[in-house]
Amino acid sequence: MKIIAADVVVTSPNRNFVTLKITTDEGLTGLGDATLNGRELAVVSYLRDHVAPLLIGRDAARIEDTWQFLYRSGYWRRGPVTMAAIGAVDMALWDLKGKAAGMPVYQLLGGASRDGLMAYGHASGTTLPELFDSIRAHQEQGYRSIRVQTGVPGLKAIYGIAAQSTTGERYDHEPAQRGAYPAEEDWDTRAYLRHVPTVFEAVRNEFGPDLPLLHDGHHRMTPIQAAKLGKSLEPYDLFWLEDCTPAENQEALRLVRQHTTTPLAIGEIFNTVWDFQALIKEQLIDYVRAASTHFGGISPLRKVMDYAAQYQVKSGFHGPTDISPVGLAAQMHVGLAIHNFGIQEYMQHGAKTNSVFRQSFTFTDGYLHPGDQPGLGVELDVDEAGKYPYEVAYLPYNRLADGTVHDW
Ligand code: EZ4
Ligand code: CO
């Protein structure tokens, strides 16, 4: 099974996506997600200029060898651009292997360890009534676990508050915004730390003790602030507190961990297993937030989870809308197969995205399943994709009241 073509497809139905399509001499095609939100074209160039030419003529069956070849022969290893490109190749080769075998990828990974993947959705609101409506709307869609983000009094625009759709069109271009310059948002950590516990108290009073609740700190706190938040949220029994400190300094989690029993999740911007090495070994986290797309694909995701299993650390793969349906399917196959699955983030793509990416996964009563089509179970409609050319879009950024740039 030789690779005869490796094409990069850029499309922007409800948001920008980069997809690698590998074709074999037997006429099979495999897909990989290479979407890097706000920096998409860098990965397009990495793939088109430096990876695709190396793939032609290679044996598509050699997934591990191809991964190691791309990772080690590149010399300048790691980083989001490199790992998104390698990840797309890895996913496409697993897709091809499944199609060649006539099996869904999870069967090749050892078969299902469960019937479905518990998914959490993103509820948000600028006020409590808006937030409660959003939680109820998610429950009506079947979600059994909910991420809660709210506005903070005094702050205008902050991460995680979805624009309320009036057109029925989903908001999945967020948090990136179309336009040639990043939008500016404001931030005040003290106001946030005061407000968030009151929100969780109100949510618990309204929805009871049972509903799993999650929260994303989005890298904005210092270790001692994060420790304080974790402690103040303990009465509300969170499923997890995510990205409480910036991803670069993993030692920060040691301090947070000493002070709170609120479970911790991190890793959506991590690229390799080495980023998790100390965090898992020292049992400083409870959930691995990596995404197949930004972590080098299915192969390394499986490896980090097998390592994490020794320490009872579970999965909580990153599933915002900037992970394409291909990337989402890839991590669903891993989640179904591994023993130490925790939860899967699932934001849902918009109708146009779903017309470009034909999917066979299901979402029933709050549980995802990747489906039983051979391979990943996602097909790309290239004609439909061609209707939506790339549009420049950037993630927002934060400034404090005095104008200082802050983590967003
Ligand atoms: O901000 O995917 O948990 N989810 C997140 C996401 C990230 C975006 C960045 O591209 O933090 O919303
Ligand atoms: Co996050």
UniProtKB/TrEMBL annotation:
A Pfam family hit: MR_MLE_N
Gene3D superfamilies the record matches: Enolase-like C-terminal domain, Enolase-like, N-terminal domain
MF annotations from Gene Ontology: magnesium ion binding; mannonate dehydratase activity
GO biological process, one term: carbohydrate catabolic process
Span of domain Mandelate racemase/muconate lactonizing enzyme C-terminal: 128-263
InterPro entries: D-mannonate_dehydratase-like, DgoD-like, Enolase-like_C_sf, Enolase-like_N, Enolase_C-like, Mandel_Rmase/mucon_lact_enz_CS, Mandelate_racemase_C, Mandelate_racemase_N_dom
NCBIfam families assigned to the protein according to its UniProt record, in alphabetical order: ManoateDhtManD (NF043051), PRK15072.1 (NF011654)
The protein, known as: Starvation-sensing protein RspA
